[in-house]
């Protein structure tokens, strides 16, 4: 009897033939904007919803945690100061977007009784990726020390999307973090250096070695790795590869494919209290008790 073989609809990772790809083809492996035909419409709708949410929750915005113009928190505390907190790190390949563009993602966790904290960070090329990572570390220290005075004193799940997922995965070991929810991320930086994205990043050998979650020792705290079924293949395989690495080390956490979601629509899972990403954050915290 022939062995049962699971049919995997995910395209083969294009990086398996990386040496045969020209610069444009390499860049296409990571170009989420081009990979989602209605990305501009989705982003515009998200930004408008975020502006409305910030306007409706003006207290706790732009609280500095460091000296930079972007190094500040937007805080959306729950009624209970000891409620769990989702710390959300935005994406944009470390060189675009801002925390304010993602305010609407606090809607679901807030409605579920969670606090939300969104740190900003300096963008490349003004800051190197090592600098950005250090800013997130500073932000987490600040939140642990000053969060209670701002109504946020509960356990923290560190979440991030796209480039923010790399930062969330990188800081899972921080003492202020109970668990991590990494969404649609890039976890090996080496190929990035050989694409258009590196023009502003200027990645070094040391940054690739020390800031790529796939190249680091596994942190034995819970982590959920989420991705949309319609993501670019490189991002799908990065999530699967990191989950496999963690599973081999018996680290807790699940792989969460979101059916029908693309790189942008996956964030809709934060817009309702019963959204798939809100439930994923809740499950992570339950796993730490």
TrEMBL record:
InterPro entries to which the protein is assigned, alphabetical: AB_hydrolase_3, AB_hydrolase_fold, GDXG_lipolytic_enzyme
Pfam families per record: Abhydrolase_3
GO molecular function list: hydrolase activity
Keyword terms: Hydrolase
Keyword Hydrolase belongs to the record: yes
Ranges for domain Alpha/beta hydrolase fold-3: 86-193
UniProt entry tagged with the keyword Hydrolase: yes
Protein name per its UniProtKB record: Alpha/beta hydrolase
Organism: Methylobacterium longum
């Amino acid at each position: 009897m022939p062995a049962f073989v699971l049919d995997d609809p995910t395209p083969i990772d294009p990086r398996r033939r990386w040496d045969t790809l020209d610069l444009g083809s390499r860049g296409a492996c990571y170009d989420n904007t081009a990979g989602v035909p209605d990305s501009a419409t989705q982003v515009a709708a998200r930004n408008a919803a975020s502006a409305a949410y910030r306007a409706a929750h003006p207290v706790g915005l732009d609280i500095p945690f460091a000296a930079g113009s972007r190094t500040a928190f937007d805080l959306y505390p729950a009624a209970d100061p000891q409620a769990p907190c989702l710390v959300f790190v935005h994406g944009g390949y470390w060189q675009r977007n801002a925390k304010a563009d993602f305010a609407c993602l606090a809607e679901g966790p807030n409605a579920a009784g969670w606090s939300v904290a969104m740190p900003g960070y300096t963008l490349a090329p003004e800051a190197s990726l090592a600098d950005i990572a250090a800013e997130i570390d500073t932000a987490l220290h600040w939140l642990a020390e000053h969060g209670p005075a701002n109504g946020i004193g509960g356990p923290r799940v560190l979440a991030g999307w796209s480039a923010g997922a790399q930062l969330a995965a990188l800081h899972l070991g921080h003492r202020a973090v109970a668990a991590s929810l990494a969404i649609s991320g890039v976890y090996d930086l080496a190929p990035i250096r050989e694409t258009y994205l590196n023009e502003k990043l200027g990645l070094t050998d040391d940054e690739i070695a020390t800031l790529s979650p796939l190249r680091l020792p596994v942190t034995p705290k819970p982590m959920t790795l989420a991705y949309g079924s319609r993501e670019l293949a490189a991002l799908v395989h990065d999530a699967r590869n990191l989950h496999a690495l963690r599973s081999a080390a018996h680290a807790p956490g699940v792989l969460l494919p979101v059916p029908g979601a693309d790189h942008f629509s996956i964030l809709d899972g934060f817009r309702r209290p019963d959204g798939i990403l809100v439930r994923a954050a809740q499950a992570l915290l339950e796993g730490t008790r």
